[in-house]
Amino acid sequence: MRITTTPSHPHPRAWAEPYKIKMVELLTMSTREDREIAIHKAGYNTFLLKSRDVFIDLLTDSGTSAMSDRQWAGMMRGDESYAGSDNFYHLEKAVQDFYGYKYIVPTHQGRGAEHILSRIMIKPGDIIPGNMYFTTTKLHQELAGGQFADIIIDEAHDPENEHPFKGNVDLNKMDALIKKYGARKIPYVCIATAVNMAGGQPISLQNLRELRDLTQKHGIPIIHDMTRVAENAYFIREREKGYQNVSTAAIVKEICSLTDGATMSAKKDPMVNIGGFLALNDEDIFDQARNMVVIYEGLHTYGGMAGRDMEALAIGIAESVDEDHIHARVGQVQYLGDHLLAKGIPIVRPIGGHGVFLDAKRFLPHLTQKVFPSQTLAAEIYLDSGVRTMERGAVSAGRNPETGQNNYPELELVRVTIPRRVYTQAHMDVVAESIEEVYSKRDKIRGLQMTYEPKHLRFFQARFQRIP
Ligand code: F0G
């Protein structure tokens, strides 16, 4: 038995969650009949369920993590001044110390930072390459008149491919974009760490360095979507040659050093319930962002966050790169994924950092993407056990803004997302059992049709009904 902070634990039970529970939130159990009513009322969209109707909530890891006693103590030290709050300076220092970026503009959450960045940097007709899209990121690029271009390696679109760094960029795709459009039309490249839509898959430092060499030659900056950078760093430590003895904190800093700025949804890695920021090294862009944040978010020393939120965030940044924390966090996701794999359930491999992604195309091979297999599967899992997951497939992919046609992405997934420090191993066992149960009855599952479609980010509010 070894209880250490080393990343490779030979025995699966040689470690436990590095915290103990001080306060609990009671959960409600429901019957199948209750859930039939609830999901019908919710238009078969798990985003429209009331959380009181949910038993284990694996909708998202965003804003749902458990804060530590230190973070809660920090909340009591909130300096709720309109301008120049102490907590802002603590946050600024944490961003500088842990990530190495020079300037920070706080925002209410990640999309606030994306909005400001897109407005400043994108001109109509611009192309913004990225290692797979994220819903809000891409929408803000489009609203600013730009167009997203996917430059992730092809392996990322194949759920069965075991590539250890499926978040990597295909440099040939990047080069081809530069040749086709010219560097002037590319205001920046958006690089996500632990790529959400690919299944929480990491980018390697080697790939990021190669991309840096290429983009620097053309004067194109790299903006880092650093929402899950610690999880990415953990995978680098586990998988990339030469990093086994480098700390997660040092790897995080090295990743950031290869980029020019970042957008952060602080509701993920740094474990706060609300918050985010835009981080920059360029003083001129920072000046513009600091001016613009006043219009859309709040003064530049709070940007939509309360003082206490900024304090909790500053503390959470330090906790997010703690070795014991990150090992247990990713370890819990692996535990669930390994159980599902052992039962032959089709999931995206390798198992990602923030959740297990069910491959709905292989789970429900009799359903075409026109009847939304992932949406259907998420509803069925909820019906079985009250476990709430979410769709990441054709509904999330939306429509092509030019043709108005539905996008049908290669990856048709259900995300089983694990909040940080919230659920126990017993919860993971229940989730695995429920997914197995649904899998055993998969032949009887029919698809859904959409009855209401909102214009933007339709997956949040779309409604469906069962196909008779
Ligand atoms: N970038 C990534 C990679 C994200 O996962 C998210 C949010 C955002 C940006 C936007 O940040 O929500 O704070 O405005 N992802 C959540 C999720 C919603 O469930 O994956 P936000």
Q: What would you note in describing this structure?
A:
With 468 residues, the protein is of the alpha/beta class. The chain folds into two domains: 4-61 and 323-466, Alpha-Beta Complex (Aspartate Aminotransferase, domain 1); 69-320, Type I PLP-dependent aspartate aminotransferase-like (Major domain) (Aspartate Aminotransferase, domain 2, 3-Layer(aba) Sandwich), CATH 3.40.640.10. The protein is 39% helix and 12% strand. It has 16 helices and 14 strands. It has helices spanning 32-41, 69-75, 86-99, 110-121, 135-143, 171-181, 205-217, 229-239, 248-257, 283-296, 307-320, 323-342, 360-363, 373-385, 394-397, 425-440; strands spanning 56-57, 103-107, 127-130, 147-150, 189-192, 222-225, 261-265, 276-280, 355-359, 387-388, 390-392, 413-417, 448-452, 463-466. α5 links the parallel β3 and β4. α8 packs across α9 and α12 runs parallel beside α16 (425-440). The radius of gyration is 21 Å and the shape is globular. The model is unreliable at 1-7 (pLDDT under 50). The structure holds ligand F0G. Ligand F0G binds next to α4 and α5.
Short précis:
Strand 5 (189-192), helix 7 and strand 6 form a beta-alpha-beta unit. This protein is an alpha/beta fold. The chain contains 16 helices and 14 strands.
On the 0 to 100 scale, the average pLDDT is 96
Envelope shape:
globular
Q: Strand order, main sheet: write it out.
A: 2-8-7-6-5
Task: List bound small molecules.
Answer: ligand F0G
> What portion of the residues fall into strands of 2 or more residues?
5-15%
Number of helices: 16
Low-confidence stretches: 1-7
Examine the coordinates and then state which fold CATH places here, giving the name of the CATH topology of the largest domain.
Answer: Aspartate Aminotransferase, domain 2
How many distinct beta strands? 14
How far is it from the N-terminal to the C-terminal residue, by CA?
55 Å
Say what oligomer this is: single chain
Query: Main sheet, how many strands, which sense, barrel?
Result: 5 strands, mixed
When the domains are counted, the total is: 2
- Helical proportion, percent range: 25-40%
What is the CATH superfamily label of the largest domain? Type I PLP-dependent aspartate aminotransferase-like (Major domain)
Tell me the Rg in angstroms.
Answer: 21 Å
